[in-house]
Amino acid sequence: MKQELYAEGARSILVEDVYPIGCMPITLAANLSIYGEAALPDSSGCVQIFNQMATMHNSFLKKEIASFGQLHPDASVALVDTYSIRLDLMTNPAKHGFKYGIAACCGIEGLPWRFSNTDKCGVSSKPQPCADRSQYVVWDGLHYTEAANIATMEAFLTGKYFYPGIPIWNTTASCSLLQVTM
């Protein structure tokens, strides 16, 4: 894909890595239903084997980006480490102003992680949106809430989560994130 973009003239490419899939309600619920008690999440609330797969993929991605950069020194290709940002949001929600890091906002009250693999938000009438979406990191078991996406973007704009590093000047002075209401 990068080669095709380069051939079309792209010289600045930003690649997003894989998020912590072992912390998502859809993964947690599926894992529990398949493997039972043997696959319960650890103290962080996540199933580490899935997060290990994501970090392994991300490390391979880093190597590919470095290799691509050596082949094409006129291109600027960077990886944004959304894995670290979102893992911190999900496992330390209060630190970021959230109440629920792993439970789904649009879900079924009383179920683990407010999530059901058979009754999904927007498909079934059983799952209902939570009262305060700003308190949740996860929207429907697989996607992040608007508040979590804003928190991710704010962390992203600090410039600390790029490989290789990209100098980002004072982004808060030059741009702001506006919350769009529909």
From TrEMBL:
Belongs to the 'GDSL' lipolytic enzyme family. Pfam families: Lipase_GDSL. This is GDSL esterase/lipase. InterPro entries: GDSL, SGNH_hydro_sf. It comes from Marchantia polymorpha subsp. ruderalis. GO terms for molecular function: hydrolase activity, acting on ester bonds.
